[in-house]
Amino acid sequence: MEQHYDMVVIGSGPGGEGAAMKATKSGLSVAVVERYHDVGGGCTHWGTIPSKALRHTVSQLAEFRNNPLFLPLLMNDDPIPLAGMLRSAESVVRRQVAMRHGFYERNRVRVVHGTARFVEPNVVEVEAPGGASERLHARDFVIASGSRPYRPANVDFAHFRICDSDTVLRLKETPSTITIYGAGVIGCEYASMFRTLGVKVNLINTREKLLSFLDDEIIDALSYHLRDQGCVIRHNEEMERIEPVEDGVVLHLKSGKRVKSDVLLWANGRTGNSQGMGLEALGVVTDDRGQIKVNDQYQTSLPHIYAVGDVIGQPALASAAYDQGRFAATHVACGSCDNRLAQDIPAGIYTTPEISSLGRTERELTAEKVPYEVGPLAVPQPRARADHRADRRDAQAALPPRDPGHPRHPLLRPPGERDHPHRPGGDEPARGPQHHQLLRQHDVQLPHHGRGLPGGGAQRAQPTLLRFAREGQKVATAPRWKAQSWSAPLRMPHQE
Ligand SMILES: Cc1cc2nc3c(=O)[nH]c(=O)nc-3n(C[C@H](O)[C@H](O)[C@H](O)COP(=O)(O)OP(=O)(O)OC[C@H]3O[C@@H](n4cnc5c(N)ncnc54)[C@H](O)[C@@H]3O)c2cc1C
After folding, report:
1. CA 93 to centroid of ligand 1, rounded, Å
2. Spatial contact of 490 and 469, defined as CB atoms under 8 Å apart
3. 13 C-alpha vs ligand 1 centroid, how far in Å?
4. Mutate which of 165, 273, 322 for ligand 1 pocket (most atoms within 8 A of beta carbon)
5. How do the domains of the chain map onto residue ranges?
6. Is 232 helix (H, G, I), strand (E, B) or coil?
7. pTM higher than 0.70 for the full model?
8. If we measure between CA atoms, which residue out of 401, 364, 403, 407 comes closest to residue 382?
9. What percent of the chain has pLDDT over 90?
10. Which of 111, 317, 351 to mutate to test the pocket of ligand 1 (most atoms within 8 A of CB)?
């Protein structure tokens, strides 16, 4: 028997959740199909949340080890099994899943567990894990099926020493050495994490520099600090083959180098989850990386089928996926949507030191002949000293101070410089502990600088506290939520 809905959403990550919540609150009947056994998507189960929870645990462990108070408690420097740290990440994931289940229940959105595949332009068949199938009919569809790590055919990912960013979370033991192939955001974040754990890290970059979308100053600082922490970085290298041996895995590079380690983490590229969904038969256009082509309203080549989030490619951020989902659902519900994703999306990069970034780089402004200024922010040293980090992470995170006694923090301009016609002082990346929270403060302020973002609001990096508060505000409808008090001036759902 076919179930009929106004909208069927495929995938329950941020993109699918954003679409489903907006649609149900606009009065549409909605079902969400999810092939994993829990809601939340890759974001909750193998991407943003577990990697950040793990990172938090690793940072806490490092702080514990660096604090003289705890020295007597430390019997030895033996590595802590990764599995133990991952268990602490699991509890964060469980709480996230419970919260997200609540969103669907409270907003009367049916969640259907199984794999969705189009059998007709307006019908998807959902095959449940046990083999049973069900057909869902809808007027409109939103595909929010996410992405997965790109896996070249000549790499044996079934071997226990070779993993990607999904399967690294299944490592039981902390390796002594790891080679990370690919030095994008995920590669750099894991390099920092493993290094903090005391693992010897080889970071193999296929490009000339790390994270070339950032300012040169920040790239140089990141390279400096990773190397200073003991990470070996090799630029401009390309894999020839990967050879598992008895006591390790050897990465053979085209340059003739061979890098041996206990484990190899493949972090080089991602592929959109668009295969096996019957899209070819319908004529929905995808590219060679599995990314679905959409117009500026997130419609595919079939106007009633929308696609959002990682499956359409950049910016491939949880925050962007969520908003794209909402915009697509608005278009379905209202027939039009004026909201657009902000071009300047704040990014938080959770390396050590942390990096946050918003807008154009100094390199781009210079190429465009736009005058600009760099404003240092004085972060008083005593605060860092007081929490035992002055000689370690905080101090390392600071560039040579321009103003003696203060680490340089180029994110915010000094008061009184806000009226420069071209130079948005906040368009500078910054780095250091908790910088993503500073960026949050800054993007809240942007509209007051005459730089309001289109779509009636700022785009927010994730995960930050305020981002979660905002998502909670968007999906909550129950009185229980209204009773909670927030220090931030949130509008309640009935005010939307
Ligand atoms: C290691 C890592 C760290 C990251 N860190 C950050 C970060 O710090 N900040 C940030 O903003 N972003 C981060 N990201 C990116 C972020 O996780 C993604 O941008 C976000 O999850 C994309 O959301 P989505 O809804 O498009 O897809 P997903 O969250 O991947 O969800 C897609 C869902 O669709 C389901 N699905 C797929 N195909 C089908 C089908 N045929 N039928 C039914 N269900 C299906 C999948 O099971 C999955 O649950 C990170 C990613 C990784 C891998």
Report:
1. 14
2. yes
3. 6
4. 273
5. 2-149+271-337, 162-268, 358-496
6. strand
7. yes
8. 407
9. 57
10. 317
Distance CA 459, CA 442 (A): 11
Pocket test for ligand 1, best of 86, 100, 118, 310 (most atoms within 8 A of CB): 310
Please tell me the distance between residue 56's alpha carbon and the centre of ligand 1 in angstroms.
20
Q: Helix or strand or coil: residue 341? A: coil
The residue whose C-alpha atom lies closest to atom 49 belonging to ligand 1 is 41
> Mean of the pLDDT values across residues 447-473?
46
Spell out which residues line ligand 1, taking CB within 6 angstroms.
Answer: 10-16, 33-36, 41-43, 47-48, 51-52, 115-116, 144-146, 165, 186, 273, 277, 309-311, 316-319, 321, 462
The neighbour count for residue 484, using CB atoms within 10 Å, is 9
Q: Which residue is associated with the tokens 């500026």? A: 296
Pairing of strands 133-143, 305-307: parallel
With a cut of 70, say whether residue 449 has pLDDT above it. Answer: no
Distance 457 CA to ligand 1 centre (A): 23
Rounded Cα–Cα distance for residues 441 and 388 (Å): 25
What CATH code is assigned to 2-149+271-337? 3.50.50.60
Place of tokens 């009184």: 416
DSSP annotation string for 395-414: HHHSPSPSSTTS---TTSPP
Are the C-beta atoms of residues 265 and 168 closer than 8 Å to each other? yes
| Topology match between the domains 2-149+271-337 and 162-268 | yes
441 within 8 A of 293, measured Cβ to Cβ = no
Between the alpha carbon of residue 155 and those of residues 49, 253, 272, the distances in Å are 27, 13, 19
- Concatenated DSSP letters of 353-390: S-EEE-S--HHHHHHTT-----------HHHHHHTT-T
The superfamily (CATH) of domain 162-268 is FAD/NAD(P)-binding domain (3.50.50.60)
- pLDDT at position 75 is 62
Atom of ligand 1 nearest to the CA of 276: 41
pLDDT 10s digits, 248-285: 999 999 999 999 999 999 999 999 999 999 999 999 99
User: Span 143-163, mean pLDDT?
Assistant: 96
